[in-house]
Design brief:
Largest interface: A-B, 44 and 43 residues
CATH architecture of the largest domain in chain B: 3-Layer(aba) Sandwich
Number of domains of chain B: 2
Oligomer: heterodimer
Mean pLDDT of chain B: 98
Shape of chain A: globular
CATH superfamily of the largest domain in chain A: Thiamin diphosphate (ThDP)-binding fold, Pyr/PP domains
Distance between the termini of chain B: 44 Å
Number of strands of chain B: 14
CATH architecture of the largest domain in chain A: 3-Layer(aba) Sandwich
Structural class of chain A: alpha/beta
Strand content of chain A: 5-15%
Low-confidence stretches of chain B: none
Radius of gyration of chain B: 19 Å
Distance between the termini of chain A: 69 Å
CATH class of the largest domain in chain B: Alpha Beta
Mean pLDDT of chain A: 95
Strand content of chain B: 15-25%
Strand order of the largest sheet of chain A: 1-2-3-7-6
Radius of gyration of chain A: 21 Å
Helix content of chain A: 40-55%
Largest sheet of chain B: 7 strands, mixed
Largest sheet of chain A: 5 strands, parallel
Order of helices and strands of chain B: EHEHEHEHHEHEHEEEEHEEHEHEHH
Number of domains of chain A: 2
Order of helices and strands of chain A: HHEHHHEHEEEHEHEHHHH
CATH topology of the largest domain in chain A: Rossmann fold
Chain lengths: 357, 324
C-alpha cells in the first residue's frame, strides 16, 4: 500500500491496474469479487448514462450537457469508498453520480432537460445539488464536514472539482478552512488537464496539483484517474483519515478529457487530436474490463448482461423523464423562501391571467 | 428595560439567542478571542465555548460558503463580516448559492443563516470602511435584509434574523454603535421582519429612512417644527418591505422624501420611489424626492460630511415637496 502523505517533488501516480504486458496487475486488500463487479456495474451505468445523454442531446431530448466520458473510474472508485451517510458535493461533471446512491436516471436527465423534477432533495441521497459555478461548492463541503465534526457525528464529505477549479479563490478558501478546522473532507480533483480550452500548464505553475495540499497542511495524493481500483484505494485511505479525526486529504486523480467539455463545445480548435485518440485507446472502462477478465472475474456474458441492464435503465429513464407532466408556472414562485412574500401570489395571479388569455 | 448602546444591544441579542438555541453558532474574523472588532460578540466564546463562537480564517467567501455547509449539517450560523466593504467577496456565495439553495432543493433544505456587518460612514475611517451596500443584498432573490436604527431594534431584528428559516442580512449602523443609547427590553426580544416603525407622526410630509439616516430624518423633522408637521417612517426591513406602512403614510401626507446614505443610482430609495409611483400616484401631491449619497466612491474622510445626506439637505428636500 502506497504511503498517503507524499513528499513534494515525488510525483508518482498510484496504480493498481496493470497493462496486461510489462506492468503487472495489483490487488486492493479487502475488495472481494462482488465489490469488483459492483464497481464495474457503476462504471457501466455511468458510461451508458453519458453516451446516451450525448445522443439524447442530438435528438433534442436533453439540453446542453457536460460530458464525463473517461471520468467514470474517478467517480465510481471514489464514491465506492464512502458510506451511504457520507456527503457528496458534485460539480456538473459529476451530474450523474447520484445514480450510485440510488437516484433515478430520470431525475438526472430531468436536470439536464431543465425540468423541476431534476432538482432533488439532497437529504434523500446525501448528494448536494450540482454546483454549476467552478469550485464554489468546496466551502460548502468543508462547512458540512466541519459541522458534522462539531456535532460529534462520524460522517465525512467529498467535493469533486476539476483542475481549473484549483485556480479559484473558493477552492483555496474551502481547502484552507477544512485544513484549519481539520474537517473530515476529501478534496477530489479530477485533473483531466483541460478547463474547456485552457490546458493545465496555463492554469498553474505548480509542478502538480497535489503539491497545493502542502500549503494547506494536508496530505496530497496523486493517483491514476483511469484506474478505478487505485482511485478507490486512495479515497478509502482519505476516508479513514477523515474518520480518525486527522482532517482532509487532497486527491489529484490524473486523467485526460477525451470528449468535448460539453455538447456546445468543439475541441478541434484547441486540442491535440492524436493525443485524444491515444487516451481513448486506454480509457478507464476498457482498462477495468481487461483487468477483470485477466482476473477471471468478468465473463463476456456478464459484461453483456451488465451493459444491457444499464441500457435498459437509460431507456426507461428517458421515457420517465419525458413522461413528466409540464412544469407549472406556479413553481416560479415556490421555494425561494420558506414563506413567500405576499407579492408572489398577486404576481402569479396576474401571470396566469395573461397566460390563460 | 436597560439603557444600552446599539452594539451592547447586539451583544445582548447574541447572549440571549445562543442561550436559547444550541444550534446557533457565531463565526467570523476576530469574533472569538477579541469578541469582534466592535465587541459585538464579546463574552460569547467564554460563555458558549470556542465551537459556538468561532474565529475563522480571513476569508469572507469561505465564511459564507462554510456557513452553507453548516446549515446542511443542522447548524444556524451567524456570520460576521468585519466591515461593509469587506463583505464583497462573500457576494459570490450569496448570489450563487445562499439565495438559491432552498429553491434548488425545491424546499427540501433550509438555510437559516445570518450575515451581519457594520455599515455606513461618518466615522473618519480609511477607505472601504464606510460603504452602504444594502442594494446589492436586497437585489438578491432568496435573502432578506434588515437594518436597525435603534438599540432595541438592533436586538430585536437580529433575534428575528437568527430565528428566521431563510438567510437574512443585517446591516448595523456603525456610526451609532456607541454614540446611540436607548431602552432595550431584557431577555427575549424579537422585532418581526417586514414591519416598519413609525418613528414620528406627522401630517404634511413623510420622510422615509432606514438605519443611520433615521436620526437625520428625525432631526430634519424637528428643524421643520412650527413650519410643517413631518412624519418619519423607519422601514427597518428592506426585504420583505412593509409596503402597507409606506403606502399608508404616503396616503396620509401626500408628500414623500426618501433618504439613503448609499449612492443614488439603482439604490434602495429608487425601489421605494418606484413603489410609490406604481401604487400611490393619486395620493401624492408632489413628486417623490430622494436625498442620497452621490454616485462617487465614498470620499476622503476630511470631506465625508459633505457626501452624507445632512439635515440641511433633507429639510431642503421636504420644503421642495411642501412648496410644489
Amino acid at each position: 500500500m502506497a504511503q498517503t502523505l507524499r513528499v513534494p517533488g515525488s510525483h508518482e501516480l498510484r496504480r493498481v491496474i496493470g497493462d496486461g504486458e510489462a506492468i503487472p496487475d495489483g490487488e486492493v486488500e479487502g475488495l472481494e469479487e462482488r465489490d469488483l463487479l459492483e464497481l464495474y456495474r457503476s462504471m457501466v451505468l455511468l458510461r451508458t448514462y453519458d453516451e446516451r445523454s450525448v445522443v439524447f442531446h442530438r435528438q433534442g431530448r436533453v439540453g446542453t450537457y457536460a460530458i464525463f466520458w473517461n471520468h467514470e473510474a474517478m467517480q465510481a472508485g471514489s464514491a465506492y469508498a464512502l458510506e451511504r451517510g457520507d456527503w457528496i458535493f458534485p460539480s456538473y461533471r459529476e451530474s450523474a453520480i447520484g445514480l450510485l446512491r440510488g437516484m433515478p436516471v430520470s431525475t438526472v436527465l430531468s436536470w439536464w432537460r431543465g425540468h423541476p423534477s431534476g432538482w432533488w432533495n439532497p437529504l434523500d441521497y446525501n448528494v448536494a445539488s450540482i454546483c454549476v459555478p467552478i469550485g464554489t461548492h468546496v466551502p460548502h463541503a468543508a462547512g458540512l464536514a466541519w459541522g458534522k465534526k462539531l456535532r460529534g457525528e462520524s460522517g465525512c464529505a467529498i467535493a469533486y472539482f476539476g483542475d481549473g477549479a484549483t485556480s479559484e479563490g473558493s477552492f483555496h478558501e474551502g481547502a484552507n478552512f477544512a485544513g484549519v478546522m481539520r474537517a473530515p473532507l476529501i478534496l477530489f480533483c479530477n485533473n483531466n488537464q483541460w478547463a474547456i480550452s485552457t490546458p493545465l500548464a496555463a492554469q498553474t505553475a505548480a509542478e502538480t496539483l497535489a503539491d497545493k495540499a502542502v500549503g494547506y497542511g494536508i496530505p496530497g495524493v496523486r493517483v491514476d484517474g483511469g484506474d478505478v481500483l487505485a482511485v478507490f484505494e486512495a479515497t478509502r485511505e482519505a476516508v479513514a483519515r477523515a474518520r480518525a479525526g486527522d482532517g482532509p486529504t487532497f486527491i489529484e486523480a490524473v486523467s485526460y478529457r477525451t470528449a468535448p467539455h460539453a455538447t456546445a463545445d468543439d475541441p478541434r480548435a484547441y486540442i491535440d487530436l492524436e493525443r485524444v485518440e491515444e487516451e481513448k485507446a486506454r480509457e478507464c472502462l476498457g482498462r477495468y474490463e481487461a483487468y477483470l477478465q485477466r482476473a477471471g472475474v468478468l465473463s463476456d456474458e456478464l459484461a453483456e448482461a451488465t451493459r444491457a441492464e444499464a441500457a435498459e435503465a437509460l431507456r426507461s429513464g428517458i421515457a420517465a423523464a419525458e413522461a413528466e407532466p409540464p412544469a407549472d408556472v406556479a413553481l416560479l414562485f415556490e421555494h425561494a423562501y420558506a414563506a413567500p412574500p405576499a407579492s408572489f401570489a398577486a404576481e402569479l395571479a396576474e401571470l396566469r391571467e395573461l397566460l390563460d388569455g | 428595560m436597560a439603557e444600552l448602546t446599539l452594539v451592547e444591544a447586539i451583544n445582548d441579542a447574541f447572549h440571549t439567542e445562543l442561550g436559547r438555541d444550541e444550534s446557533v453558532l457565531v463565526m467570523g474574523e476576530d469574533v472569538g478571542r477579541a469578541g469582534g472588532v466592535f465587541r459585538a460578540t464579546a463574552g460569547l466564546r467564554d460563555k458558549f465555548g470556542a465551537d459556538r463562537c468561532v474565529d475563522t480564517p480571513l476569508a469572507e467567501a469561505g465564511i459564507l460558503g462554510a456557513a452553507v455547509g453548516l446549515c446542511m449539517a443542522g447548524w444556524r450560523p451567524v456570520c460576521e463580516m468585519q466591515y461593509d466593504a469587506f463583505s464583497y467577496p462573500c457576494l459570490d456565495q450569496l448570489i450563487t448559492h445562499v439565495g438559491r439553495y432552498r429553491w434548488r432543493t425545491r424546499g427540501g433544505m433550509g438555510f437559516p443563516l445570518v450575515v451581519r456587518m457594520p455599515y455606513g460612514g461618518g466615522v473618519r475611517a480609511p477607505e472601504l470602511h464606510d460603504d452602504s451596500p444594502e442594494a446589492y443584498y436586497a437585489h438578491t432573490p432568496g435573502v432578506k435584509v434588515a437594518i436597525p436604527s435603534t438599540p432595541a431594534d438592533a436586538k430585536g431584528l437580529l433575534a428575528a434574523a437568527i430565528r428566521d428559516p431563510d438567510p437574512v442580512i443585517v446591516l448595523e449602523p456603525k456610526l451609532h454603535y456607541r454614540t446611540m443609547r436607548g431602552e432595550v427590553p431584557a431577555g427575549e426580544h424579537v422585532v418581526p421582519l417586514g414591519e416598519a416603525r413609525l418613528a414620528r407622526e406627522g401630517d404634511d410630509a413623510t420622510i422615509v429612512a432606514y438605519g443611520s439616516m433615521v436620526p437625520v430624518a428625525e432631526r430634519a423633522a424637528e428643524a421643520l417644527e412650527g413650519e410643517a408637521s413631518i412624519e418619519v417612517l423607519d422601514i427597518r426591513t428592506l426585504k420583505p418591505l412593509d409596503e402597507g406602512a409606506l403606502l399608508a403614510s404616503a396616503g396620509k401626507t401626500g408628500r414623500v422624501v426618501i433618504v439613503q446614505e448609499a449612492p443614488r443610482t439603482a439604490g434602495y430609495g429608487a425601489e421605494l420611489a418606484a413603489i410609490l409611483a406604481e401604487k400611490a400616484m393619486l395620493d401624492l401631491r408632489a413628486p417623490v424626492i430622494r436625498v442620497t449619497g452621490y454616485d462617487v466612491p465614498y470620499p476622503y474622510w476630511q470631506i465625508e460630511d459633505a457626501y452624507m445626506p445632512s439635515v440641511e439637505r433633507v429639510v431642503a428636500a421636504v420644503r421642495k415637496t411642501l412648496e410644489f
